[in-house]
Amino acid sequence: MDGQEQRIAAAREVVRGKIEYFKQNFSRVESHWKADKTRVTDADMTLSRTITAEILQKFPGDDFCSEEELPPAGTTKKFDAEFAWVLDPIDGTNNFARGIPLCAISLALLRRGMPVYGIIYDHAQNSILEGGESVPLTKNGIVVEVPPELPFDANSLISLHFPLSTRDSRALEPLTRVNALRCQGSAALNLAYNAFGAIDGSIDHFTRVWDIAAACAMLAAVGKRIIFTGANPFPLREISYDMPKLRWFAGTKAFLDKAESLGII
Q1: What is the pTM of this model?
Q2: What per-residue confidence (pLDDT) applies to 35?
């Protein structure tokens, strides 16, 4: 195996090894609140610490970022290595803490700053989702045939992150007044379900790179686009606590064409 294949195999082993811990602690751990008023649990911290340690033990020269182990505010960590890892130990921590199963472990492998592989443990489906540059989209190791794209119409599903600002709410009204909406509470699952064809269009105005890096690799595996309407984190060259929130649209060509025609991209 070459270096990329070795890392993909290691990612599978590490994430699969954390599923039982995830299940045992689901809705059973104490919550704390970070400086930015977001929830974190002891399980987030344990998963972050153990996954980081296991990956870097195998690949000590790689760069690594976990949401729960960011450089201190006001400082930046440069990503200079050929390979880098981006981890969200629990994406959807609010759901995890409250007993809502839409939560996930999300781990991305980047090469020269670009996502080339993503693996997500989807707790709601008790499934491992994978995909990337050299890995077809799979669910529990079985290649998934994504359904053909359909025209974007009133039957198409859109996934959003709430709350929305007044400005964004007004801008999106041509879609939100017509289409059925979903809010998973996990950006990783939002985009992963998009890649797998369950969601036609995904929109978010409040994510960070660790939320979406793994799912971005899955989108690329099936030729779907993500359009950043502000800062584009890729190629990823540095990580900081103060990184801007990401605003993006993703999905089928028909969805993106519709959003562009409405002037909201």
Answers
A1: 0.96
A2: 77
